[in-house]
């Protein structure tokens, strides 16, 4: 969530601002000072203190002894509830590890975050000496990259051609030096959960490597879908890679 989204949204302003505070703290990855929080959100310190008071009562934010702010215990509880609802970690993480152990590029699982971005929920780095730089919790563009395209298609009702919606290839779109292949994961009721991707330096994405990793990503996505209780759309035309 960005300050511009908060300003342009049609929700309750105080709620949007409070959620932006939580988002900034979560993205920082470490406790943050009030001054840094003010710079990141564009809010006056007096406004921040009023909103933070409510967030502290809800245990979404906690003020440490050194005066810096961090996520509170309720934020952790929400994360656990999300995991329990989708079983994503226990289902998807072993599949990511399995692909990396077979020599793939780095494996990740991305899902929708907001109108402009997707979030990396799970990540396993490859064994190669050079990697693309993505960490769990990172926000990436929703409109660029293989996983981003799939998330737009499946979570925002954008219908691609049937042969294109199970596998996507991106060559240097999000980062000119990186490439990726991605495949979607569905849950109960065929609700879209997110996208499994294999990504790394573009120079290693040869035709043979793309073919191998595309097959791995599709198989992992299908297995994750079936384990989560979804239905893999096997009756569609065979998936082909589409450049994102």
Structure notes:
The protein is globular and about 55 Å long. The chain is 42% helix and 21% strand. The two termini are 24 Å apart. The strands form 2 sheets. Strands 5-4-3-8-7-6-9 form a 7-stranded mixed sheet. A two-stranded antiparallel sheet has the order 1-2. The protein has helices spanning 3-8, 13-28, 34-41, 45-57, 73-86, 88-101, 146-155, 207-228; strands at residues 61-63, 69-71, 106-114, 117-124, 139-141, 168-171, 178-186, 192-201, 242-243. A hairpin with a 2-residue loop joins β3 (106-114) and β4. The chain has 244 residues and is α+β, with helices and mostly antiparallel strands.
Secondary structure category: alpha+beta
Describe the sheet with the most strands.
7 strands, mixed
Rg (C-alpha, Å)? 19 Å
- Gap between N and C termini, in Å? 24 Å
Number-wise, the strands total: 9
Can you lay out the helices and strands and say which pair or pack?
Blueprint: H1 3-8, H2 13-28, H3 34-41, H4 45-57, E1 61-63, E2 69-71, H5 73-86, H6 88-101, E3 106-114, E4 117-124, E5 139-141, H7 146-155, E6 168-171, E7 178-186, E8 192-201, H8 207-228, E9 242-243
Parallel strand pairs: 6-9
Antiparallel strand pairs: 1-2, 3-4, 3-8, 4-5, 6-7, 7-8
Helix pairs in contact: 2-4, 6-8
């Amino acid at each position: 969530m960005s300050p511009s989204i908060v300003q342009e949204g049609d929700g309750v302003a105080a709620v949007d601002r409070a959620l932006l505070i939580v988002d900034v703290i979560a993205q920082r990855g470490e406790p943050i000072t009030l001054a840094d929080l003010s710079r990141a959100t564009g809010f006056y310190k007096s406004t921040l203190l009023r909103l933070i008071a409510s967030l502290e009562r809800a245990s979404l934010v906690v003020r440490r002894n050194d005066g810096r702010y961090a996520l509170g215990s309720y934020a952790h509880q929400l994360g656990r509830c999300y995991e329990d609802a989708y079983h994503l970690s226990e289902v998807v993480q072993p599949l990511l590890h399995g692909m990396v152990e077979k020599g793939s590029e780095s494996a990740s699982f991305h899902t929708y975050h907001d109108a402009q971005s997707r979030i990396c929920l799970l990540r396993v780095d490859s064994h190669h000496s050079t990697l693309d730089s993505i960490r769990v919790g990172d926000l990436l563009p929703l409109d660029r990259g293989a996983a981003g395209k799939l998330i737009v298609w499946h979570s925002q009702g954008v219908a691609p051609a049937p042969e294109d919606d199970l596998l996507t290839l991106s060559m240097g779109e999000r980062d000119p030096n990186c490439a990726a292949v991605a495949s979607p994961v569905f849950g109960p009721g065929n609700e879209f959960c997110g996208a499994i991707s294999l990504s790394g330096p573009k120079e290693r994405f040869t035709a043979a490597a793309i073919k191998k990793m595309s097959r791995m990503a599709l198989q992992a996505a299908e297995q994750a879908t079936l384990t989560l209780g979804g239905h893999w759309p096997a009756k569609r035309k065979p998936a082909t890679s589409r450049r994102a």
